[in-house]
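Duplicate of earlier report; HIRAN domain-containing protein input re-posted below.
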Amino acid sequence: MPLFRRRPEVSADVLVGFCAAEAPAMQRSLLAALGLGEHPAPTVVPARLQVDRGADDRLVLVWRNVIVGFVPAHAAPDLAVRLDAAGDATLMVRGAVHRADGTWRVWVGDVPPDGFPPVPEGLDTLPPPEPSILGVPLRRLDGHA
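Output:
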């Protein structure tokens, strides 16, 4: 067995697209994956997303080797079955990264022809991380804890 072999990929079609959860908390990861730097991104960036297991029964979405979101509870059972069926292969789905109300969001599935639907209530439960420098929260730097 070679040490550095790539796992084969299995593509899965998502018939009913959905918005990935926890976008506000994942903004740093999304910006890192976008690699914006000094260049503005287009409004919709196509993405090939890897579906993988996270903590507990959660499924994570990986784009460009960065975790960028979570599969919401209503869509997880179908993708979990497909992930199990993929075995050793990497499960890949089509998607897009886009801006909605000033937040970068991950859409899983084909881009809707009529535009992205509004973000469902209660989708995002994690708070955005505090601004920090090298992991030290900025509020501690001014002496206030």
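Residues 9-107 form one domain.

Merging into the original ticket.
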